[in-house]
Design a protein that fits this description.
Blueprint: H1 3-10, H2 14-32, H3 36-49, H4 54-66, H5 70-83, H6 88-100, H7 104-117, H8 122-134, H9 138-151, H10 156-168, H11 172-185, H12 190-202, H13 206-213, H14 220-229, E1 243-247, H15 252-258, H16 262-267, E2 271-276, H17 278-284, E3 290-295, E4 305-308, H18 312-315, H19 334-344, E5 351-356, E6 385-389, E7 408-410, H20 418-425, E8 430-434, H21 437-444, E9 449-453, E10 474-478, H22 486-501
Protein backbone atom coordinates (compact mmCIF):
# COMPACT_ATOMS: atom_id res chain seq x y z
CA UNK A 1 0.00 0.00 0.00
CA UNK A 2 1.26 3.47 -0.81
CA UNK A 3 2.62 5.38 2.20
CA UNK A 4 0.17 8.27 1.88
CA UNK A 5 -2.82 5.92 1.79
CA UNK A 6 -1.59 3.87 4.73
CA UNK A 7 -1.16 7.02 6.80
CA UNK A 8 -4.60 8.25 5.80
CA UNK A 9 -6.29 5.00 6.77
CA UNK A 10 -4.40 4.81 10.07
CA UNK A 11 -5.57 8.32 10.93
CA UNK A 12 -9.23 7.38 10.55
CA UNK A 13 -11.01 5.13 13.10
CA UNK A 14 -11.73 1.70 11.60
CA UNK A 15 -15.47 1.90 12.31
CA UNK A 16 -15.72 5.16 10.38
CA UNK A 17 -13.75 3.68 7.48
CA UNK A 18 -16.10 0.69 7.39
CA UNK A 19 -19.18 2.92 7.44
CA UNK A 20 -17.89 5.21 4.69
CA UNK A 21 -16.87 2.16 2.62
CA UNK A 22 -20.46 0.91 2.74
CA UNK A 23 -21.67 4.32 1.55
CA UNK A 24 -19.12 4.37 -1.27
CA UNK A 25 -20.16 0.92 -2.46
CA UNK A 26 -23.79 2.01 -2.38
CA UNK A 27 -22.92 5.16 -4.34
CA UNK A 28 -21.05 3.16 -6.98
CA UNK A 29 -24.02 0.82 -7.39
CA UNK A 30 -26.38 3.78 -7.72
CA UNK A 31 -24.03 5.35 -10.27
CA UNK A 32 -23.94 2.11 -12.25
CA UNK A 33 -27.74 2.11 -12.30
CA UNK A 34 -27.80 5.69 -13.59
CA UNK A 35 -29.25 7.09 -10.34
CA UNK A 36 -26.78 9.95 -10.21
CA UNK A 37 -28.60 12.11 -7.65
CA UNK A 38 -28.72 9.27 -5.14
CA UNK A 39 -25.09 8.41 -5.81
CA UNK A 40 -24.02 11.99 -5.22
CA UNK A 41 -25.83 12.08 -1.87
CA UNK A 42 -24.16 8.82 -0.83
CA UNK A 43 -20.72 10.13 -1.74
CA UNK A 44 -21.29 13.33 0.25
CA UNK A 45 -22.41 11.26 3.25
CA UNK A 46 -19.19 9.28 2.96
CA UNK A 47 -17.19 12.51 2.75
CA UNK A 48 -18.90 13.78 5.88
CA UNK A 49 -17.33 10.79 7.64
CA UNK A 50 -13.96 11.02 5.81
CA UNK A 51 -13.49 14.56 4.50
CA UNK A 52 -9.80 13.91 3.79
CA UNK A 53 -10.36 10.78 1.72
CA UNK A 54 -8.74 11.28 -1.67
CA UNK A 55 -10.40 8.24 -3.19
CA UNK A 56 -13.91 9.43 -2.25
CA UNK A 57 -13.20 12.81 -3.86
CA UNK A 58 -12.02 10.96 -6.97
CA UNK A 59 -15.14 8.80 -7.06
CA UNK A 60 -17.33 11.88 -6.70
CA UNK A 61 -15.37 13.63 -9.46
CA UNK A 62 -15.99 10.68 -11.79
CA UNK A 63 -19.69 10.81 -11.03
CA UNK A 64 -19.88 14.53 -11.71
CA UNK A 65 -18.04 14.04 -15.01
CA UNK A 66 -20.62 11.44 -16.04
CA UNK A 67 -23.39 13.84 -15.05
CA UNK A 68 -21.90 16.56 -17.27
CA UNK A 69 -20.92 18.83 -14.37
CA UNK A 70 -17.35 19.29 -15.49
CA UNK A 71 -16.34 22.30 -13.40
CA UNK A 72 -17.54 20.62 -10.21
CA UNK A 73 -15.74 17.42 -11.26
CA UNK A 74 -12.49 19.38 -11.71
CA UNK A 75 -12.73 20.78 -8.18
CA UNK A 76 -13.15 17.28 -6.76
CA UNK A 77 -10.10 16.05 -8.67
CA UNK A 78 -8.04 19.03 -7.55
CA UNK A 79 -8.95 18.30 -3.94
CA UNK A 80 -8.04 14.63 -4.37
CA UNK A 81 -4.62 15.58 -5.77
CA UNK A 82 -4.08 18.07 -2.95
CA UNK A 83 -4.72 15.29 -0.45
CA UNK A 84 -2.65 12.69 -2.31
CA UNK A 85 -0.23 14.41 -4.72
CA UNK A 86 1.72 11.21 -5.47
CA UNK A 87 -1.30 9.03 -6.27
CA UNK A 88 -1.01 8.32 -10.02
CA UNK A 89 -4.73 7.51 -10.63
CA UNK A 90 -5.60 10.86 -9.05
CA UNK A 91 -3.33 12.67 -11.49
CA UNK A 92 -4.87 10.68 -14.33
CA UNK A 93 -8.40 11.65 -13.27
CA UNK A 94 -7.38 15.28 -12.92
CA UNK A 95 -6.06 15.14 -16.47
CA UNK A 96 -9.39 13.74 -17.65
CA UNK A 97 -11.22 16.58 -15.91
CA UNK A 98 -9.01 19.15 -17.64
CA UNK A 99 -9.53 17.40 -20.98
CA UNK A 100 -13.31 17.50 -20.57
CA UNK A 101 -13.07 21.27 -20.20
CA UNK A 102 -10.94 21.65 -23.32
CA UNK A 103 -7.78 22.44 -21.34
CA UNK A 104 -5.62 20.08 -23.37
CA UNK A 105 -2.14 21.20 -22.31
CA UNK A 106 -2.99 20.95 -18.61
CA UNK A 107 -4.57 17.56 -19.25
CA UNK A 108 -1.47 16.18 -20.99
CA UNK A 109 0.73 17.54 -18.21
CA UNK A 110 -1.29 15.61 -15.62
CA UNK A 111 -1.28 12.40 -17.67
CA UNK A 112 2.51 12.66 -17.92
CA UNK A 113 2.79 13.27 -14.17
CA UNK A 114 0.68 10.17 -13.59
CA UNK A 115 3.04 8.14 -15.78
CA UNK A 116 6.07 9.52 -13.95
CA UNK A 117 4.53 8.23 -10.74
CA UNK A 118 3.38 4.92 -12.23
CA UNK A 119 4.64 4.02 -15.71
CA UNK A 120 2.41 0.96 -15.75
CA UNK A 121 -0.87 2.87 -15.47
CA UNK A 122 -2.58 1.83 -18.71
CA UNK A 123 -5.37 4.41 -18.36
CA UNK A 124 -2.86 7.28 -18.30
CA UNK A 125 -1.12 5.98 -21.44
CA UNK A 126 -4.52 5.71 -23.12
CA UNK A 127 -5.65 9.18 -22.05
CA UNK A 128 -2.39 10.78 -23.13
CA UNK A 129 -2.77 9.05 -26.49
CA UNK A 130 -6.29 10.41 -26.89
CA UNK A 131 -5.12 13.94 -26.11
CA UNK A 132 -2.22 13.63 -28.54
CA UNK A 133 -4.63 12.39 -31.19
CA UNK A 134 -6.83 15.43 -30.65
CA UNK A 135 -3.72 17.60 -31.02
CA UNK A 136 -2.92 15.92 -34.35
CA UNK A 137 0.15 13.97 -33.16
CA UNK A 138 -0.93 10.59 -34.49
CA UNK A 139 2.46 8.86 -34.33
CA UNK A 140 2.85 9.57 -30.61
CA UNK A 141 -0.78 8.64 -30.04
CA UNK A 142 -0.12 5.23 -31.62
CA UNK A 143 2.81 4.68 -29.29
CA UNK A 144 0.70 5.63 -26.27
CA UNK A 145 -2.02 3.16 -27.20
CA UNK A 146 0.57 0.45 -27.72
CA UNK A 147 2.08 1.26 -24.31
CA UNK A 148 -1.36 1.01 -22.73
CA UNK A 149 -1.79 -2.42 -24.32
CA UNK A 150 1.60 -3.63 -23.12
CA UNK A 151 0.44 -2.98 -19.58
CA UNK A 152 -3.15 -4.14 -20.13
CA UNK A 153 -3.48 -6.43 -23.16
CA UNK A 154 -7.24 -6.68 -22.73
CA UNK A 155 -7.86 -2.90 -22.92
CA UNK A 156 -10.65 -2.90 -25.51
CA UNK A 157 -10.82 0.87 -26.08
CA UNK A 158 -7.06 1.06 -26.59
CA UNK A 159 -7.33 -1.64 -29.26
CA UNK A 160 -10.24 0.28 -30.80
CA UNK A 161 -8.43 3.61 -30.97
CA UNK A 162 -5.24 1.99 -32.22
CA UNK A 163 -7.30 0.37 -34.98
CA UNK A 164 -8.70 3.74 -36.00
CA UNK A 165 -5.22 5.26 -36.32
CA UNK A 166 -3.88 2.28 -38.26
CA UNK A 167 -6.94 2.51 -40.51
CA UNK A 168 -6.20 6.17 -41.24
CA UNK A 169 -2.59 5.23 -41.98
CA UNK A 170 -3.79 2.76 -44.63
CA UNK A 171 -2.69 -0.31 -42.65
CA UNK A 172 -5.72 -2.46 -43.40
CA UNK A 173 -4.42 -5.70 -41.89
CA UNK A 174 -3.10 -3.93 -38.79
CA UNK A 175 -6.37 -2.10 -38.26
CA UNK A 176 -8.37 -5.30 -38.70
CA UNK A 177 -6.16 -7.08 -36.16
CA UNK A 178 -6.60 -4.26 -33.66
CA UNK A 179 -10.37 -4.27 -34.07
CA UNK A 180 -10.44 -8.06 -33.75
CA UNK A 181 -8.49 -7.73 -30.48
CA UNK A 182 -11.02 -5.15 -29.28
CA UNK A 183 -13.84 -7.60 -30.05
CA UNK A 184 -12.00 -10.37 -28.18
CA UNK A 185 -11.54 -8.08 -25.17
CA UNK A 186 -15.13 -6.84 -25.20
CA UNK A 187 -17.44 -8.99 -27.36
CA UNK A 188 -20.29 -6.49 -26.95
CA UNK A 189 -18.33 -3.45 -28.18
CA UNK A 190 -20.45 -2.52 -31.18
CA UNK A 191 -18.03 -0.04 -32.73
CA UNK A 192 -15.26 -2.64 -32.76
CA UNK A 193 -17.43 -5.13 -34.63
CA UNK A 194 -18.56 -2.53 -37.18
CA UNK A 195 -15.05 -1.20 -37.76
CA UNK A 196 -13.71 -4.74 -38.08
CA UNK A 197 -16.41 -5.45 -40.64
CA UNK A 198 -15.49 -2.44 -42.73
CA UNK A 199 -11.79 -3.32 -42.72
CA UNK A 200 -12.57 -6.87 -43.80
CA UNK A 201 -14.78 -5.54 -46.59
CA UNK A 202 -12.06 -3.09 -47.60
CA UNK A 203 -9.70 -6.06 -47.91
CA UNK A 204 -12.24 -7.87 -50.11
CA UNK A 205 -13.00 -10.46 -47.41
CA UNK A 206 -16.75 -10.11 -47.90
CA UNK A 207 -17.90 -13.38 -46.34
CA UNK A 208 -16.17 -12.41 -43.07
CA UNK A 209 -17.00 -8.72 -43.28
CA UNK A 210 -20.77 -8.68 -43.83
CA UNK A 211 -21.70 -10.37 -40.51
CA UNK A 212 -19.52 -7.92 -38.57
CA UNK A 213 -20.97 -4.98 -40.51
CA UNK A 214 -24.44 -6.08 -39.39
CA UNK A 215 -23.52 -4.99 -35.86
CA UNK A 216 -24.18 -1.40 -36.99
CA UNK A 217 -27.88 -2.16 -36.47
CA UNK A 218 -27.20 -2.04 -32.74
CA UNK A 219 -26.51 1.67 -33.04
CA UNK A 220 -29.68 3.51 -31.94
CA UNK A 221 -29.74 5.66 -35.09
CA UNK A 222 -29.99 2.55 -37.26
CA UNK A 223 -31.87 -0.09 -35.32
CA UNK A 224 -34.15 1.81 -32.97
CA UNK A 225 -37.00 2.59 -35.39
CA UNK A 226 -37.29 -1.01 -36.55
CA UNK A 227 -37.16 -2.30 -32.98
CA UNK A 228 -39.78 0.21 -31.81
CA UNK A 229 -42.05 -0.68 -34.71
CA UNK A 230 -41.68 -4.41 -34.14
CA UNK A 231 -40.62 -4.91 -37.76
CA UNK A 232 -39.96 -8.50 -38.79
CA UNK A 233 -36.48 -8.76 -40.34
CA UNK A 234 -36.31 -10.56 -43.66
CA UNK A 235 -34.00 -13.57 -43.57
CA UNK A 236 -33.55 -13.87 -47.34
CA UNK A 237 -36.19 -16.58 -47.81
CA UNK A 238 -38.66 -16.67 -50.71
CA UNK A 239 -41.19 -13.89 -50.27
CA UNK A 240 -44.13 -15.56 -52.05
CA UNK A 241 -46.05 -12.36 -52.67
CA UNK A 242 -45.23 -10.64 -49.39
CA UNK A 243 -44.51 -6.92 -49.30
CA UNK A 244 -40.98 -6.10 -48.16
CA UNK A 245 -39.92 -2.67 -46.93
CA UNK A 246 -36.35 -1.78 -47.87
CA UNK A 247 -35.05 1.08 -45.74
CA UNK A 248 -32.28 3.33 -47.06
CA UNK A 249 -30.96 3.66 -43.46
CA UNK A 250 -27.82 5.70 -44.21
CA UNK A 251 -26.69 8.41 -46.63
CA UNK A 252 -27.60 9.11 -50.24
CA UNK A 253 -24.60 7.25 -51.65
CA UNK A 254 -25.28 4.09 -49.65
CA UNK A 255 -28.92 4.09 -50.74
CA UNK A 256 -27.96 4.45 -54.41
CA UNK A 257 -25.29 1.75 -54.17
CA UNK A 258 -27.55 -0.86 -52.56
CA UNK A 259 -30.77 -0.12 -54.44
CA UNK A 260 -29.48 -2.59 -57.07
CA UNK A 261 -30.63 -5.34 -54.70
CA UNK A 262 -34.30 -4.32 -54.97
CA UNK A 263 -34.56 -6.28 -58.22
CA UNK A 264 -33.11 -9.36 -56.52
CA UNK A 265 -35.65 -9.09 -53.71
CA UNK A 266 -38.43 -8.80 -56.29
CA UNK A 267 -37.04 -11.93 -58.00
CA UNK A 268 -37.72 -13.79 -54.76
CA UNK A 269 -41.39 -13.07 -55.16
CA UNK A 270 -41.65 -9.88 -53.16
CA UNK A 271 -43.49 -6.63 -53.69
CA UNK A 272 -40.76 -4.11 -52.93
CA UNK A 273 -41.42 -0.82 -51.18
CA UNK A 274 -38.41 1.47 -50.63
CA UNK A 275 -38.25 4.07 -47.89
CA UNK A 276 -35.78 6.85 -48.70
CA UNK A 277 -35.06 10.56 -48.36
CA UNK A 278 -37.32 12.89 -50.36
CA UNK A 279 -34.37 13.86 -52.57
CA UNK A 280 -34.13 10.24 -53.81
CA UNK A 281 -37.82 9.45 -54.21
CA UNK A 282 -38.21 10.58 -57.83
CA UNK A 283 -35.07 8.77 -58.91
CA UNK A 284 -35.97 5.51 -57.17
CA UNK A 285 -39.63 5.35 -58.18
CA UNK A 286 -39.02 3.56 -61.49
CA UNK A 287 -35.93 1.53 -60.52
CA UNK A 288 -36.00 -2.18 -61.44
CA UNK A 289 -37.90 -4.23 -58.89
CA UNK A 290 -39.36 -1.24 -57.01
CA UNK A 291 -43.15 -1.24 -56.73
CA UNK A 292 -43.52 1.85 -54.56
CA UNK A 293 -41.49 4.51 -52.76
CA UNK A 294 -42.30 6.15 -49.43
CA UNK A 295 -40.32 9.12 -48.16
CA UNK A 296 -38.74 9.08 -44.73
CA UNK A 297 -41.09 10.44 -42.08
CA UNK A 298 -44.27 9.61 -44.01
CA UNK A 299 -46.77 6.98 -42.90
CA UNK A 300 -45.70 3.49 -43.89
CA UNK A 301 -47.87 1.23 -46.04
CA UNK A 302 -48.65 -2.29 -44.91
CA UNK A 303 -45.74 -4.71 -45.23
CA UNK A 304 -44.82 -8.13 -43.87
CA UNK A 305 -41.02 -8.04 -43.66
CA UNK A 306 -38.33 -5.41 -43.48
CA UNK A 307 -34.66 -5.07 -44.39
CA UNK A 308 -32.20 -2.16 -44.42
CA UNK A 309 -30.70 -1.69 -47.87
CA UNK A 310 -27.09 -2.07 -46.59
CA UNK A 311 -27.98 -5.50 -45.16
CA UNK A 312 -28.95 -6.94 -48.54
CA UNK A 313 -25.39 -7.83 -49.66
CA UNK A 314 -25.10 -9.97 -46.53
CA UNK A 315 -28.44 -11.69 -47.10
CA UNK A 316 -27.55 -12.44 -50.71
CA UNK A 317 -24.10 -13.72 -49.76
CA UNK A 318 -22.34 -11.20 -51.98
CA UNK A 319 -18.71 -11.86 -52.79
CA UNK A 320 -16.37 -9.93 -55.05
CA UNK A 321 -17.35 -12.29 -57.86
CA UNK A 322 -21.12 -12.03 -57.32
CA UNK A 323 -21.67 -8.28 -56.95
CA UNK A 324 -24.75 -7.39 -59.04
CA UNK A 325 -23.06 -5.20 -61.67
CA UNK A 326 -25.72 -4.86 -64.35
CA UNK A 327 -25.78 -1.14 -65.10
CA UNK A 328 -27.55 1.10 -65.52
CA UNK A 329 -30.00 0.20 -62.80
CA UNK A 330 -31.12 3.80 -62.43
CA UNK A 331 -32.38 5.94 -65.29
CA UNK A 332 -32.87 9.62 -65.95
CA UNK A 333 -36.37 10.94 -66.52
CA UNK A 334 -36.66 11.28 -70.30
CA UNK A 335 -38.48 14.63 -70.27
CA UNK A 336 -36.01 16.18 -67.83
CA UNK A 337 -33.07 14.83 -69.79
CA UNK A 338 -34.46 16.36 -72.99
CA UNK A 339 -34.68 19.77 -71.32
CA UNK A 340 -31.04 19.52 -70.22
CA UNK A 341 -30.05 18.56 -73.75
CA UNK A 342 -31.59 21.78 -75.01
CA UNK A 343 -29.76 23.81 -72.35
CA UNK A 344 -26.41 22.34 -73.30
CA UNK A 345 -26.95 22.76 -77.05
CA UNK A 346 -24.62 25.26 -78.61
CA UNK A 347 -22.28 25.58 -75.63
CA UNK A 348 -19.32 24.85 -77.89
CA UNK A 349 -17.94 22.11 -75.68
CA UNK A 350 -16.07 19.16 -77.15
CA UNK A 351 -16.35 17.37 -73.82
CA UNK A 352 -18.78 18.17 -71.01
CA UNK A 353 -17.49 17.20 -67.57
CA UNK A 354 -19.56 17.29 -64.39
CA UNK A 355 -17.49 18.27 -61.35
CA UNK A 356 -17.91 17.67 -57.60
CA UNK A 357 -15.02 18.59 -55.31
CA UNK A 358 -16.37 18.49 -51.75
CA UNK A 359 -18.25 16.00 -49.58
CA UNK A 360 -21.30 17.15 -47.65
CA UNK A 361 -21.30 14.08 -45.43
CA UNK A 362 -21.32 14.56 -41.66
CA UNK A 363 -19.09 11.52 -41.15
CA UNK A 364 -15.90 12.15 -39.18
CA UNK A 365 -13.74 11.63 -42.28
CA UNK A 366 -15.80 13.76 -44.67
CA UNK A 367 -13.29 16.62 -44.67
CA UNK A 368 -10.56 14.31 -45.94
CA UNK A 369 -12.67 13.58 -49.02
CA UNK A 370 -12.89 17.22 -50.07
CA UNK A 371 -10.63 19.19 -52.39
CA UNK A 372 -10.57 22.99 -52.65
CA UNK A 373 -11.69 23.87 -56.16
CA UNK A 374 -8.59 26.03 -56.61
CA UNK A 375 -6.47 22.89 -56.12
CA UNK A 376 -7.99 21.51 -59.33
CA UNK A 377 -5.91 23.93 -61.39
CA UNK A 378 -4.25 21.02 -63.28
CA UNK A 379 -7.64 20.38 -64.91
CA UNK A 380 -7.94 23.93 -66.24
CA UNK A 381 -7.19 25.00 -69.77
CA UNK A 382 -7.72 21.67 -71.53
CA UNK A 383 -9.00 22.58 -75.02
CA UNK A 384 -12.65 21.91 -75.62
CA UNK A 385 -13.37 20.74 -72.06
CA UNK A 386 -16.15 22.58 -70.25
CA UNK A 387 -16.91 21.86 -66.60
CA UNK A 388 -20.37 21.88 -65.06
CA UNK A 389 -20.54 22.24 -61.30
CA UNK A 390 -22.78 19.68 -59.63
CA UNK A 391 -21.48 20.77 -56.23
CA UNK A 392 -24.03 21.49 -53.51
CA UNK A 393 -23.65 23.09 -50.10
CA UNK A 394 -21.27 25.79 -48.93
CA UNK A 395 -18.45 24.55 -51.18
CA UNK A 396 -20.51 25.50 -54.25
CA UNK A 397 -19.55 29.12 -53.60
CA UNK A 398 -15.93 28.29 -54.45
CA UNK A 399 -16.87 28.51 -58.10
CA UNK A 400 -16.20 32.25 -57.82
CA UNK A 401 -12.52 31.42 -57.24
CA UNK A 402 -12.22 28.76 -59.93
CA UNK A 403 -8.69 28.27 -61.32
CA UNK A 404 -7.71 30.49 -64.18
CA UNK A 405 -8.53 28.94 -67.54
CA UNK A 406 -11.21 26.62 -66.16
CA UNK A 407 -14.46 27.08 -68.07
CA UNK A 408 -16.99 26.12 -65.40
CA UNK A 409 -20.74 26.65 -65.27
CA UNK A 410 -22.79 26.36 -62.10
CA UNK A 411 -25.72 23.94 -62.31
CA UNK A 412 -26.28 23.58 -58.57
CA UNK A 413 -29.22 25.97 -58.41
CA UNK A 414 -31.14 23.86 -60.94
CA UNK A 415 -30.67 20.53 -59.16
CA UNK A 416 -33.56 20.23 -56.72
CA UNK A 417 -33.16 16.48 -56.23
CA UNK A 418 -31.34 13.44 -57.57
CA UNK A 419 -33.82 13.05 -60.40
CA UNK A 420 -32.73 16.45 -61.70
CA UNK A 421 -29.08 15.49 -61.21
CA UNK A 422 -29.58 12.24 -63.13
CA UNK A 423 -31.10 14.13 -66.05
CA UNK A 424 -28.13 16.50 -66.13
CA UNK A 425 -25.64 13.62 -65.92
CA UNK A 426 -27.34 11.93 -68.85
CA UNK A 427 -26.11 14.83 -70.99
CA UNK A 428 -22.54 14.93 -69.69
CA UNK A 429 -19.66 12.99 -71.19
CA UNK A 430 -17.84 12.41 -67.91
CA UNK A 431 -18.25 12.97 -64.17
CA UNK A 432 -15.22 13.76 -62.01
CA UNK A 433 -16.13 13.58 -58.35
CA UNK A 434 -14.68 13.01 -54.94
CA UNK A 435 -16.27 10.17 -52.95
CA UNK A 436 -19.84 11.51 -52.80
CA UNK A 437 -23.37 10.48 -53.70
CA UNK A 438 -22.88 11.98 -57.16
CA UNK A 439 -20.16 9.43 -57.87
CA UNK A 440 -22.58 6.65 -56.92
CA UNK A 441 -25.32 8.20 -59.03
CA UNK A 442 -23.08 8.47 -62.10
CA UNK A 443 -21.96 4.87 -61.65
CA UNK A 444 -25.54 3.62 -61.25
CA UNK A 445 -26.46 5.48 -64.46
CA UNK A 446 -23.49 3.82 -66.22
CA UNK A 447 -21.97 7.19 -67.02
CA UNK A 448 -18.16 7.42 -67.37
CA UNK A 449 -17.05 8.38 -63.86
CA UNK A 450 -13.64 9.22 -62.42
CA UNK A 451 -13.71 9.15 -58.63
CA UNK A 452 -11.06 10.75 -56.43
CA UNK A 453 -10.33 8.79 -53.24
CA UNK A 454 -8.53 9.76 -50.07
CA UNK A 455 -5.51 7.73 -48.93
CA UNK A 456 -7.54 5.54 -46.53
CA UNK A 457 -10.69 5.01 -48.58
CA UNK A 458 -14.15 3.91 -47.58
CA UNK A 459 -14.58 0.13 -47.60
CA UNK A 460 -16.59 -0.04 -50.84
CA UNK A 461 -13.68 1.12 -52.98
CA UNK A 462 -11.35 -1.68 -51.82
CA UNK A 463 -7.58 -1.16 -51.98
CA UNK A 464 -4.95 -0.78 -54.68
CA UNK A 465 -7.13 -0.98 -57.77
CA UNK A 466 -8.12 1.50 -60.43
CA UNK A 467 -11.46 -0.06 -61.30
CA UNK A 468 -14.57 -0.45 -59.18
CA UNK A 469 -16.36 -3.80 -58.96
CA UNK A 470 -19.59 -2.05 -57.97
CA UNK A 471 -19.64 0.29 -60.98
CA UNK A 472 -18.15 -0.99 -64.27
CA UNK A 473 -17.95 2.49 -65.85
CA UNK A 474 -15.94 3.97 -62.97
CA UNK A 475 -12.22 4.58 -62.63
CA UNK A 476 -10.62 5.26 -59.25
CA UNK A 477 -7.87 7.82 -58.64
CA UNK A 478 -6.24 7.41 -55.24
CA UNK A 479 -4.08 9.59 -53.04
CA UNK A 480 -0.58 8.19 -52.57
CA UNK A 481 -0.07 10.21 -49.39
CA UNK A 482 -2.67 11.33 -46.83
CA UNK A 483 -4.10 14.73 -47.69
CA UNK A 484 -2.13 15.07 -50.95
CA UNK A 485 -4.26 15.26 -54.10
CA UNK A 486 -1.31 16.07 -56.40
CA UNK A 487 -0.88 12.62 -57.92
CA UNK A 488 -4.53 11.74 -58.66
CA UNK A 489 -5.22 15.18 -60.13
CA UNK A 490 -2.07 14.96 -62.25
CA UNK A 491 -3.20 11.56 -63.56
CA UNK A 492 -6.62 12.93 -64.48
CA UNK A 493 -5.09 15.99 -66.15
CA UNK A 494 -2.88 13.70 -68.21
CA UNK A 495 -5.70 11.37 -69.29
CA UNK A 496 -8.49 13.90 -69.83
CA UNK A 497 -7.24 15.31 -73.17
CA UNK A 498 -7.24 11.82 -74.69
CA UNK A 499 -10.71 11.11 -73.28
CA UNK A 500 -12.10 14.38 -74.60
CA UNK A 501 -10.57 13.69 -78.01
CA UNK A 502 -12.70 10.56 -78.34
CA UNK A 503 -15.98 12.33 -77.80
Amino acid sequence: MLNWLGKLLRSTPPAVVDQSAVLVQAALAQQQAGRYDEAERSFYRALALEPDSAHIHLHLGNLLRLAGRQEAALQCCLEAVRLAPEFAPGRNNLGSAYRDLGRREEAMAEFRRALTLDGGLAEAHFNLGTSLLAAGDTSQAIECYRSALRHRPGFALAHLNLGFLLEEAGDVSGAAAAYASAVAADPQLVEAHVNLGMQLLLAGRFSEGWPEYEWRLRYPEYGAAAAAGGFVRWNGAELAGKTILLDSEQGFGDAIQFLRYAALAADRGGRVVVRCAPELAGLFSDAPGVSAVVVSGAALPAFEVYCPLPSLPHLFGTTLDTIPVRVPYLHADAAKAARWKEKFAGDGAVCRVGLVWASQSKHRTAGAKSIPLKAMAPLAGIPGVHYYSLQKGAAAREIDQAPAGMRIFDLSGELADFSDAAAALANLDLVISVDTAVAHLAGALARPTWTLLKFAPDWRWLMDRGDCPWYPTMRLYRQRRPGDWTDPLAAIAQQLPAFSGTR
